[in-house]
Recover the amino acids of this structure.
């Protein structure tokens, strides 16, 4: 086990050195696919696991190609990433145990962040030589540790296959940061055979490694849209009356979107994060594009915001005689851990020596696209649990000096193995 | 003639003492109806001359009643104003000459202003004792002179009936100030038998009496609307999500109405002159009401503004899920004097000793609901002319010290009589 | 005691018949002042208890006069209400016990609502003949019961004066509904000698009489402002460039006020409840007036909203070159019951037979200007408690059929007497 | 003369083949500088003629370098364009005649447009092989003809130097399209020694070559600004209260800029032509950038718009607590041809056989940065004239198929030579 943990640390550092953001995780895809294949897992890749109709927020072709080539240069075998070409990253691996039993899923997200990593001597990856090799990209949210935890767990099941009851199914999910990846995997029906689903995140709860939170709540429901208004350009000096001003429409929309009445029964959020419009000084803008995000403490409240926002968007189009295009590109519903699994997990955690503390309840207060999968599993009668694995983080998530205590990889892996054993006991 | 002029001055001063604004001109209606009856005119009154479907901007019932009673107290015979009860003011009087000929219409507006008249010794009505007896109301736009000019002209035709060719038809029109009266009269079809129509205004061109302008242009096309948004009130603290905020809708509308792209081919205007919304601090406003006005240098440009405004109004309703009610309450199209009458009038004016100067052309640069009548007459093949009769005005139109040189009453009357004679010669 | 309770019910019904809203509570003032005088209390009235600098939201002079006269006609002695003339209503009464001890304050609000009371047979005040005699006004928030509860308590102390330790001080406060009265009383320094302060409300917690809640929290901090923009009017057709458009400024303010970023750490609210601007169609509005309200779950969050709102108001003034006047007219800070009094009250409540249930904690989720007084007392080292006294309410607060179970008057009075005894024991 | 005209056509076609937009006119600069040097003109170049403080709207370094290299590749001698490196394009050339007399300036603009030229066979440059060699750039506003006209005129003066009285000074001005070039030249004081200044444009008046308009008016005064709001970014979900939303500020500004009251005394325009803000979905935008343009029929009206716009910009900064940066980057005042030169030019034109028609007056109805120079000359007591030289244009200005009748080059050159002779006669 110590040997396996040392390997897991190596995998994590290897992934840390080769971070690639959403839909570009060719290196991670190749590394994981190679390992799972070696360990006897049945693999699914590429368009078999990513729904093309939900393949949103894709980087441009040049970036896709560059990152694909980077992965090859870094030593990944092309056979494992050829199916991912064009951004269809991620790996699903399945292993049948030797004895009958339920199907238990495990989801680990694998994407990096668009952040340049600290080179400061106090930042361990820099000091110990496993910092990101790709400028502008880095694993600053711990998904490298998630992937390593998944691999360690997968290896455990493979090594103990003869004792395993039921089936284990691993989802190494791309593009969690943009809240796109879970949607694209879920739409392929890949979770529909699960009886149980587990996922988690490192470092959200403070404290030393060994801390764990199981009654995690307050996943913010979230929706993201790309909004485009199209009008008609005209010379602003000579014939303003001929124009249909997409920028004025967008400004009316943006202002009034932020003025939507907030819900009385809990937190909601709305943000227009970017806006681009127009071409030059003396031309009335024909096109305006912006990115809109809503959130709510639960599905009902987020749906309220989406509906109110929809009216505002439509109204601004009517005001300025514009064509409106609203494209939903990311989603995360609210969600709630299955109480049975919270109870079972608590029982398991209390008897594991590596778990030093079980935090009674924790508000996540952010969005996670694990909830897309959780909702699907629960709607079909399964149960799901999202766990917070404590670790010190040095810098905040997404900061350039984020890091973890690698022990959390083992803690998480052990806990999940023990839970699977308990379920199938 | 001198005797008649002295009478006309008395009528003007009598009207000046009893000013009543739009739809309240009971005193003027009674005085004029009595005179025309005495002189043998065929009268039309009340609902026969005011279309109920266009009877907009009516004062409240208490005011209507108060002013009706004031007129009776001031000595008007009830038989002449009973048909006007409820705001159906104005008089149409027709006289057939002894010889055949065309039908020539003359329009004089009779309403006062909501202004309190100056009591200063330098203001002649105050100094000579014919200032307004009704606080808050006064003839500060010269419509008292218009009415007197019309009566003097009507008396002239009656006195010379045996020499008159054709028919003369007088329109003593209420409520010009709100641009409602001409619309209501026109809709009754009262102008549809006219071959010619004349109207005018005193004091718009500077200069001494005897100045006259015939090529008058730049009547601003105008439209006025009462706009109401109805939403749903709710407690702003407890359940903001239940509301449909009519004030937010109105504010979005008002701001974006003023942002409508102005037309490249000439002046346009837009104004929201009033807004009222809501009931108290902690309730989301259920209702918002405002007054909207558009203008353009001609019908096309005003129509452009109305259409753009309509979209904005509708869009704000969509934005905040409101019911929109837009009620057009006043209108004045653009217009242009018939060139034949400009030429004929110029010929006549040049030979009248009382006309000292004919101004070649004059921009009106304001709105006049005479254009509603002008347009109707011209559309049916008739000709129309709006004349500016110069007079010093002492204070500006609508100011509390506006006054005229009463000689303009005779100048105008003589000119119009001479034009009628020329047409029917 | 039963006799006293019967009297308290009569007082409550008397007050119920003569409801008068904020600053108009002449009848209640007269009735209470007469009783307290009779019972030996030292009285303070009029400008001695209402700070003129915080005398906000005063009704107009005609209404003040009418309601003053109504109180006289209803039998109140002028000597008791003459000091209140002009809206300086309310009564402060002090009684020194025979033995030394702390000063304990009791606050009861006495104003009625601007609601027309139900005349339906199912509404007890209507059925039993004590419904409001003043159309448009009614006690639909239970302040009549509060006043009766206060009188019953005052009578108890007077009757037992020889056994009372310390001083009791009663604040019969006007104008709680507009959140003005407590501010005006507090500014006079009247609470500065208190060691303890108690207040409460009937009917906020559901359930039968005898229910009581002591750990009351979530008082929403609230601020109300009257906002006026003054610009310059001009003719909207002729010279729009001369104007400074107060309505456009107000609309920019209103929209952007609602777009203020909500706080991430708890509920906040903002509302513009009314807006009035302008005079007529063709004049650019010179003046716009609106009512603005902010709330927050605590003082910090409300202060955040007030500061953000202030910037928006100022910015709109800069935009349209307007003079801005912001008048704070009502306030209620957040607040929290003193834990010592919650504990003490709980102990007392548990041993009183009339208290059937003590609710562990209750969110008030609204604003109460008692918090102004509470904050003052606590800041000076005193302790304060706001209690919820359960009663069925038949219709909701402020509805036309709101009513109470009068037993709550006695329950409340007994509880407060017992608490005072415990404190001074 | 025919030989010279043939040369002028060659120059024009050479320039047409090598179009470069504002601040990138290296080819034209090199060609013109070489010719003027050859002809004995005193040259000024680079930073001697372009004020660094007004060197606005500079293309990026890569584009500057690319176009510089293109010019060298196309055969321009480096000595003539080295001073222009970095975008300091343009040429000023001075020639003293042999006899004393006034200093007469001639301004010709030389920049191309960002348009891709038509390749259709009906487009003469395409058919005859002198179409643009630079994709995305083309001379679609006739500035190639202006430059050729200037060279032809310069050659004429050089060839006739012994008969020339006074001094002639040529301004081959860069970047007219962005209305930057004249400002940058004028600030260097280069026009301060002129007694007369002439400029013109081909093809604005319809009709055949030989048509000329001298009483040109209605130059729209124009101002352009780059506006930046800087606030503070924050996570839109977790801590919206920490942000200062630059996009909301910009939207408030944009909407209210378009709502500025239009002036009653003539046309005004306002346009926000582009807007860019923010980085991603869940971050409150820290920065917003937009391009603002105002116009007015004269300086007074444009100044009115600039002042009103300034208030709105400032107000939005106050609203959202943003830092505002407003950078004026282009300007063109209104202007009016000196009446003496209109008269003199008319006299001259009438006796030239090549001038077939003198149009009495023509409204320019657009902006031209010649007015910057005109104003400077007139303010210092000199006289200035802007002439419209008629030519058919095939496609509209800035369209991909714009072309001219090359005869206009000679017409213009002859006319300007004749005017110079008349002035100095």
């Amino acid at each position: 086990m110590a040997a396996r943990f040392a390997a897991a640390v190596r995998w994590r550092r290897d992934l840390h050195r080769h971070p690639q953001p959403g839909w570009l995780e060719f290196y991670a895809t190749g590394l994981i696919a190679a390992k799972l294949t070696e360990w006897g897992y049945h693999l699914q890749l590429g368009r078999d696991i990513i729904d093309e109709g939900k393949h949103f927020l894709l980087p441009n072709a040049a970036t896709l190609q560059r990152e694909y080539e980077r992965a090859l240069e870094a030593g990944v075998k092309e056979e494992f990433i050829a199916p991912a070409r064009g951004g269809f990253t991620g790996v699903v691996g399945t292993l049948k145990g030797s004895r009958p039993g339920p199907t238990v899923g495990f989801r680990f997200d694998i994407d990096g962040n668009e952040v340049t990593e600290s080179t400061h001597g106090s930042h361990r990856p820099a000091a110990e030589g496993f910092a990101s090799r790709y400028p502008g990209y880095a694993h600053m949210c711990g998904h490298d540790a998630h992937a390593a935890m998944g691999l360690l767990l997968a290896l455990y099941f493979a090594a103990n296959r003869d004792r395993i009851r039921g089936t284990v199914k691993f989802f190494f999910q791309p593009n969690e940061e943009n809240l796109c990846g879970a949607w694209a995997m879920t739409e392929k029906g890949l979770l529909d055979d699960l009886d149980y689903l587990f996922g988690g995140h490192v470092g959200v709860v403070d404290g030393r490694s060994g801390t764990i939170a199981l009654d995690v709540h307050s996943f913010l429901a979230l929706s993201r849209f790309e909004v485009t208004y199209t009008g008609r350009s005209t010379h602003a000096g000579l014939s303003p009356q001929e124009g249909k001003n997409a920028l004025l429409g967008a400004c009316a929309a943006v202002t009034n979107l932020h003025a939507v009445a907030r819900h009385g029964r809990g937190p909601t959020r709305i943000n227009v994060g970017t806006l681009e419009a127009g071409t030059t000084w003396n031309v009335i803008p024909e096109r305006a594009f912006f990115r809109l995000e809503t959130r709510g403490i639960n599905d009902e409240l987020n749906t309220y915001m989406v509906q109110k926002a929809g009216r505002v968007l439509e109204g601004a189009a009517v005001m300025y005689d514009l064509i409106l295009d609203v494209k939903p590109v990311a989603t995360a519903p609210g969600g709630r851990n299955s109480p049975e699994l919270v109870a079972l997990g608590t029982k398991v955690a209390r008897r594991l020596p590596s778990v030093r503390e079980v935090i009674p309840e924790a508000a996540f207060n952010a969005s996670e696209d694990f909830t897309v999968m959780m909702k699907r599993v629960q709607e079909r009668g399964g149960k799901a649990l999202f766990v917070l694995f404590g670790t010190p983080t040095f810098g905040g998530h997404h900061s350039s000096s984020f890091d973890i205590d690698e022990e959390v990889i083992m803690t998480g892996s052990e806990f999940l193995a023990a839970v699977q054993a308990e379920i199938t006991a």
Notes: Residues 299-320 of chain D form the longest helix (22 residues). Residues 35 and 151 of chain D are 8 Å apart (CA to CA). The mean pLDDT of chain D is 95.
